[in-house]
């Protein structure tokens, strides 16, 4: 290996004319694949990049941020190279000071300036919890945000990659081999699935459809729909997840009755559903600015009319009401939307950088929470929807109840999102079944009655959200509760030790 090669060169350096071992700084990521997509990685400055960055102080062989935080905050992280003017040659060695005074202009040196340190909002212990909870899943994404600030506490995209390898710590050949393998993987390990991909939200969109229906008086808390396993509309039969019979709004959310929301979709305009979704941040980039961001889509009548050459079918609205059809969201968008549900309607700008600091820890700039929008929603309507979200977990017939962990106080909504049956290229025929399964969702917040965090779990091709996504969310929230209790206890102990009442 290259460690042995360097050791051998250093040992025989005197005998090897023209050979010099020069140390080169290499970025080291101590947590490996953990948070790789959001942190990003470094890449070597090649001639093409050098030509593009001419005049910015880069040299061939330097490294700069390629993606993630590394790229977005490169100008703060890089620092400034120092230099010193010296005279060379044998004569210069004998009369260095006199000759330097005679021939060298001032200034003769510039001290290097270290780059700034970036303090992130990520909670590394919570990140490790998310990674453990997702170990049994092949692919997907999880985000955890603070409902009171919009700060991202955890973000995981799976499968991941090792930024130490792709940054070049093991040599250029290892980088080429790593990327060749990553780009040929149908699970797309280089894609940040928290922000750069959009998926149909499925039933996780139903709370927002309910708010639109309540606001427009299409439904009331007492409206009853007879679910016999589906909904007949025109010549088409839209299937439900079961036979629920007489359901009201609360039961429709708790049991995830599609039929109830199909009936809602028949009575509401599709643009109203789209507008409600966009109010909560769907179909619009969040502005996180870390990686290329998927906008998602809240389809309108005009969008469908353009897409289908002037033909709009009312069935499109029924599908939109259950988060299907052309509706798509990113995992981060959904977590911020549920955070707004939890906090009463405040949609925050997502943040991953808490502050910029000098190398000695002095804070240069802090980033306070930023509000994107205050969603106008009737508090009574919001209370009705949130009651249903509590029931999804707490009530026996709730779609998340079977996977609930005693003592974990959480509210939320499960979802199964149908996928297109287009299998990625070069997929093993024996694995096609996996790519044809529905995506599994869970979106929620905790604690249920005094929310602090919002969590969204997407298990790609996981099937049922109640079976695949809910257990992941439960484990993460359970660990978060333990971390919160431990930290509160530590702060209380520290105050007593300092004599603070």
Characteristics:
three-stranded antiparallel sheet; alpha+beta; five-stranded antiparallel sheet; single chain; 501 residues
Q: Give the low-confidence spans.
A: none
Distance between the termini: 58 Å
Strand content: 15-25%
- Helix content class: 25-40%
Overall average pLDDT: 89
Characterize the main sheet. Answer: 5 strands, antiparallel
Give me the side-by-side strand order of the main sheet.
7-6-18-17-16
- Shape descriptor: elongated
Structural class assignment: alpha+beta
Please give the count of helices.
20
Please count the beta strands (DSSP E, at least 2 residues each). Answer: 18
Estimated radius of gyration: 28 Å
Description of the molecule:
The chain has 501 residues and is α+β, with helices and mostly antiparallel strands. It is built from 20 helices and 18 strands. The chain is elongated and about 100 Å long. The mean pLDDT is 89.
Strand and helix map with partners:
Blueprint: H1 2-11, H2 36-39, E1 42-44, H3 47-52, E2 63-65, H4 68-72, H5 74-77, E3 83-84, H6 90-94, H7 96-103, E4 109-110, E5 117-120, H8 124-133, E6 140-146, E7 152-158, H9 163-166, H10 172-183, H11 206-215, E8 225-227, E9 230-233, E10 236-239, E11 245-247, H12 249-254, H13 258-267, H14 270-279, H15 301-307, H16 315-321, H17 331-343, E12 346-348, E13 353-357, E14 363-366, E15 371-374, H18 379-394, E16 411-417, H19 432-435, E17 439-446, E18 453-459, H20 465-498
Antiparallel strand pairs: 1-2, 3-4, 5-13, 6-7, 6-18, 8-11, 9-10, 12-15, 13-14, 16-17, 17-18
Helix pairs in contact: 8-20, 11-13, 11-14, 11-18, 13-16
